[in-house]
């Protein structure tokens, strides 16, 4: 394999010669930096160097955007050079990102808004469940409906572009600070989640943005550091470089972004950090090569805020829009100029950038705009947005913005009911001894924990406050609540129906240090509900995988005296749950970040109005130290390039790692309980394609890549039965084990199908999983394509990654 990889890299290195200077004098052109290295066979055997891929491919409207592409071209034809430069450069204004209007052409500009679970800079908007939460539903319909409802709110507030959904971070490390904004460390599950979310958002008329492209797997050192005065040319450390091989790139990190492109996503946001030595927003291999050439992406690449580190080099490498446009920290200083803006005008005039490249940038920006009909009757930007926007408040505006229409529009509709349903469907029942759940009209309930009650520091969820329930994490992915149903409120309301006694203790320090029998009256409560929370936020990685605020001690203290301790976690993601085997901890529910209807959604599950059907979108290990691939949090050297993160675990992240290394876990990927019981039987596989060959027929590239990769070639069917007493949903999951002829490093099994199936008690249904060519292929680094290995595949269907019930084999291509 090593020699094969060397061959590949050397062939890529023979691409047209381009020197660093040709791309951007004075800027930090990492692409060219790695490219102009003399041929070094030691380095060639490794990875961490990004080959140059030029020029940037032009959009051609493939995938149904032909008519919109023609309109975009007609629009571009009317622009002056200065207007063209404005079209690719963010400017301060009412939204988090803004493109100036061109009134002459009746173009009212573009409004870009955060984020993954809410339109963040807004009033009277909903706070939806987080990405990790909705991923826990394993429900394609819910993923779509959430996207659609969010899209409606962005549109009604006048935002053409929603900065969501997230597939980077994928979740390489359990500790990464932004995993909760995305879905799952499994690329297949995240791929489906991306596709459904994007379809939902775009069907509602807003442009979705798949982010952060790519390998944004940790927060620590995601950006460069500058000298004490913040001078952009005086770098102390370049940002972390995420270094991975080509196969890992394709089979893990690029996989869900391919789904995004397949779903015709309007835009891609490139990441902050470097990839194989080159900044993500000027990495020509990633943007020109992988995204625009291999995947046939037709939309535009926008930078993360301040992720642009050069002008010409970034433009040539495939960046189409610089956000938020200015220089300085996070690009927030527009008066200091821009790598784009006026510099684009200069670069075209001095012959460095071909105007055809600039035109393609704008064509890519305007094609989805026309395709989604945003040129006709799109709502104005809600004027209240400008007052709430702290990113570029009015004092920073360089031009006046005319804001019209009703201010403080209420865009929430009936989404509260939707969020309540989605969050209860997302709640994962991890333990339920003696069937203590659902609750059977208890008359005495004790509620514990600082996560149960009202938020005490307001609703702007940007800090890890001690008192109050957690509905979302922090940073650009948070949301501003307009109301909050706390667990305590909802429990009190529900318990009142039974005339129950409800007592509460919300001070974790007090609970953890007190003999709780001295607290409650008049005797042992029938159930003790413990609410725990775990914060995470953008720009910081998690320091541990425990629950916060002495939560582990709170559980131990309660369980010491209460033989029916039911624990609910509101968490950013993985918690190790060291007390999970405590005999008095009778039930555990992982509810993640549920959004504004938190209390109602958990009460629906606790009391059995909703039968839990959430499934873990990641693995819960026995110990935090069991996880591999930790973030790189320190280096001992001072070289400007020295922050490096080597993805040496390759494909072995999350369950792929625990399976490959045969490590016991506490709760495996895909696990979750129900109040009912289910069985699987009669697995069968039907081949849908004749004469399959190892390599796919090369067809013209469409969004998503070679269309042959997306063709269903097998249909695996299985019958699923609800053998319990109550109606409910389960999630049969299909895992593929590749034949031995697949290259070394292929994980023991990989998720390649799942379906959420609702069944009445006693009902049986047949479920089909269509396997696409990509599902049965590995990425061959030598021939640079997906190949089906010869020999027999094992197809296992079960209720989790370690609860496989039915097995069959298929041989798509004989040896
Ligand atoms: C090749 O790269 C290796 C590893 O970085 C380095 O030690 C060696 O000096 C380089 N050789 C040449 C000829 O530059
Ligand atoms: C930072 O600015 C101060 C004040 O202008 C100057 O004295 C100092 O030398 C600067 N530091 C660096 C590293 O340039
Ligand atoms: C061009 O970019 C440089 C940084 O490379 C910046 O200092 C300058 O202000 C920019 N010019 C314009 C017109 O934005
Ligand atoms: C052309 O303009 C760009 C942008 O300001 C600049 O980076 C580049 O060095 C200029 N090239 C020449 C040859 O003047
Ligand atoms: C101008 O734009 C508005 C909406 O932005 C649209 O309704 C109207 O038809 C447009 N007019 C022309 C002449 O294109
Ligand atoms: C929480 O309990 C601890 C221990 O009893 C006490 O010191 C602290 O003041 C309490 N905090 C509040 C806000 O009451
Ligand atoms: C806790 O309090 C109960 C009731 O007062 C008492 O029976 C028990 O011994 C106490 N436990 C400890 C460890 O002091
Ligand atoms: C479980 O709770 C009961 C009180 O209901 C208590 O007597 C027992 O010691 C507890 N068990 C453990 C292992 O703490
Ligand atoms: C807890 O202990 C009480 C009193 O011994 C008993 O009635 C009840 O069934 C126990 N609850 C559980 C869940 O074991
Ligand atoms: C977790 O592993 C570490 C390192 O092996 C060990 O020190 C620690 O005791 C373990 N914790 C638990 C709860 O097993
Ligand atoms: C830094 O040095 C310390 C002490 O020698 C060592 O334990 C640690 O592993 C080093 N860290 C890195 C990232 O090299
Ligand atoms: C796969 O099987 C399911 C269940 O029988 C069926 O509904 C579906 O149409 C099948 N798909 C194809 C392509 O045959």
TrEMBL record:
Mind listing the GO biological process terms from this record? cellulose catabolic process
Q: In which pathway does it act?
A: Glycan metabolism; cellulose degradation
Q: Which UniProt keywords apply?
A: Carbohydrate metabolism, Cellulose degradation, Glycoprotein, Glycosidase, Hydrolase, Polysaccharide degradation, Secreted, Signal
Which E.C. number(s) belong to this protein? 3.2.1.21
Supply the SMART domains for this chain: Fn3_like
Q: Which InterPro entries match?
A: Cellulose_deg_GH3 (IPR050288), Fn3-like (IPR026891), GH (IPR017853), Glyco_hydro_3_C (IPR002772), Glyco_hydro_3_C_sf (IPR036881), Glyco_hydro_3_N (IPR001764), Glyco_hydro_3_N_sf (IPR036962), Ig-like_fold (IPR013783)
Q: Which GO molecular function terms does the record list?
A: beta-glucosidase activity
Where in or outside the cell? Secreted
For this protein, the record's Pfam families field holds: Fn3-like (PF14310), Glyco_hydro_3 (PF00933), Glyco_hydro_3_C (PF01915)
Q: What class of enzyme is it?
A: hydrolase
Signal sequence segment: 1-20
**Has the keyword Secreted been applied to this entry?**
yes
Q: What is the top-level taxon of the source organism?
A: Eukaryota
| Reaction equations catalysed | Hydrolysis of terminal, non-reducing beta-D-glucosyl residues with release of beta-D-glucose
Q: GO terms for CC?
A: extracellular region
- Domain (Fibronectin type III-like): residue spans on this chain: 730-801
Q: Does Transmembrane count among this protein's keywords?
A: no
Q: Which family does it belong to?
A: Belongs to the glycosyl hydrolase 3 family.
User: Which function does this protein serve?
Assistant: Beta-glucosidases are one of a number of cellulolytic enzymes involved in the degradation of cellulosic biomass. Catalyzes the last step releasing glucose from the inhibitory cellobiose.
Per its record, how is this protein called by name? Beta-glucosidase cel3A
């Amino acid at each position: 394999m090593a020699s094969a990889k060397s061959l590949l890299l050397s062939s890529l290195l023979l691409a047209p010669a381009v020197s660093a200077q040709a791309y951007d004098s004075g800027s930090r052109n990492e692409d060219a930096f790695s490219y102009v290295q003399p041929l070094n066979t030691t380095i060639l055997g490794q990875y961490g160097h990004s080959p140059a891929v030029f020029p940037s491919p032009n959009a051609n409207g493939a995938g149904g955007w032909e008519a919109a592409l023609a309109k975009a071209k007609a629009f571009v034809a009317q622009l002056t050079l200065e207007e063209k430069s404005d079209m690719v450069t963010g400017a301060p204004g009412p939204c988090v990102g803004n493109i100036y209007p061109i009134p002459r052409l009746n173009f009212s500009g573009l409004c870009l808004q955060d984020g993954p679970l809410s339109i963040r800079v807004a009033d009277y908007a909903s706070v939806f469940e987080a990405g990790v939460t909705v991923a826990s539903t394993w429900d394609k319909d819910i993923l779509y409906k959430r996207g659609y409802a969010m899209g409606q709110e962005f549109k009604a507030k006048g935002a053409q572009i929603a900065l969501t959904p997230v597939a980077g971070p994928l979740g390489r490390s359990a500790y990464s600070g932004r995993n909760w904004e995305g879905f799952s460390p499994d690329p297949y599950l995240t791929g489906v989640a991306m596709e459904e979310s994007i379809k939902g958002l775009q069907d509602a008329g807003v442009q979705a943005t798949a982010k952060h492209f790519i390998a944004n797997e940790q927060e620590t050192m995601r950006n460069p550091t500058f000298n004490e005065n913040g001078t952009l040319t005086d770098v102390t450390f370049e940002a972390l470089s995420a270094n991975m091989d080509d196969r890992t790139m394709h089979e893990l990190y690029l996989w869900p972004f391919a789904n995004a492109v397949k779903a015709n996503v309007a835009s891609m946001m490139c990441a902050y950090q470097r990839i194989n030595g080159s900044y993500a927003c000027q990495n020509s291999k990633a943007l020109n090569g992988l995204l625009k050439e291999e995947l046939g992406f037709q939309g535009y690449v926008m930078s993360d805020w301040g992720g642009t580190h050069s002008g010409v080099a970034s433009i040539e490498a495939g960046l189409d829009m610089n956000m938020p446009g200015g220089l300085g920290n996070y690009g927030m200083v527009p008066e200091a100029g821009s790598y784009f803006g006026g510099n684009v005008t200069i670069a075209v005039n001095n012959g460095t950038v071909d105007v055809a490249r600039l035109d393609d940038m704008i064509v890519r920006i305007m094609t989805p705009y026309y395709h989604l009909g945003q040129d006709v009757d799109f709502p104005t930007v809600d004027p209240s947005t400008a007052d709430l926007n702290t990113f570029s408040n009015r004092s920073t505006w360089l031009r006046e913005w005319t804001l019209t229409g009703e201010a403080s529009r209420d865009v929430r509709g009936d989404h509260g009911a939707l969020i309540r349903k989605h969050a209860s469907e997302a709640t994962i029942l991890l333990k339920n001894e003696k069937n203590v759940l659902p609750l059977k009209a208890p008359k005495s309930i004790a509620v514990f924990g600082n996560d149960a009650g009202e938020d005490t520091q307001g609703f702007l969820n940007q800090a890890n406050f001690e008192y109050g329930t957690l509905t979302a994490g922090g940073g650009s992915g948070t949301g501003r609540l307009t109301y909050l149903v706390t667990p305590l409120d909802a429990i009190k309301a529900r318990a009142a129906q039974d005339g129950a006694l409800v007592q509460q203790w919300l001070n974790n320090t007090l609970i953890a240090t007190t003999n709780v029998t001295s607290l409650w009256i008049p005797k042992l409560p029938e159930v003790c509900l413990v609410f725990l929370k775990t914060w995470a936020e953008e720009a910081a990685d998690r320091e541990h995988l425990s629950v916060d605020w002495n939560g582990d001690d709170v559980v131990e203290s309660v369980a010491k005296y209460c033989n029916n301790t039911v624990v609910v976690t509101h968490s950013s993601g993985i918690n190790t749950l060291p007390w999970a085997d405590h005999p008095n901890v009778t039930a555990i529910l992982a509810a993640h970040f549920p959004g504004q209807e938190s209390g109602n959604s958990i009460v629906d599950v606790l009391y059995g109005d909703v039968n839990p059907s959430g499934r873990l979108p990641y693995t819960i290990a026995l110990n935090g130290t069991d996880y591999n691939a930790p973030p790189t949090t320190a280096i001992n050297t001072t070289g400007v390039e020295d922050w490096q993160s080597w993805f040496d675990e390759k494909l072995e992240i999350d369950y792929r790692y625990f399976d490959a290394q045969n490590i016991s876990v506490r709760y495996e990927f895909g696990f979750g309980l129900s109040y009912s019981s289910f069985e699987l039987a009669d697995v069968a596989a039907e081949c849908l394609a004749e004469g399959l060959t190892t390599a796919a027929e090369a067809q013209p590239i469409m969004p998503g890549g070679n269309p042959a990769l997306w063709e269903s070639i097998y249909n695996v069917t299985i019958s699923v039965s609800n053998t319990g007493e109550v109606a409910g949903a389960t999630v049969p999951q299909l895992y593929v084990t590749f034949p031995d002829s697949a290259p070394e490093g292929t994980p023991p099994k990989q998720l390649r199908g799942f379906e959420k199936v609702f069944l009445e008690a006693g009902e049986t249904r047949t479920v089909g999983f269509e396997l696409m060519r990509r599902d049965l292929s590995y990425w061959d680094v030598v021939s640079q394509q997906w190949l089906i290995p010869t020999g027999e595949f094992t197809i296992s269907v079960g209720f989790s990654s370690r609860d496989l019930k039915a097995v069959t084999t298929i041989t798509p291509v004989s040896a």
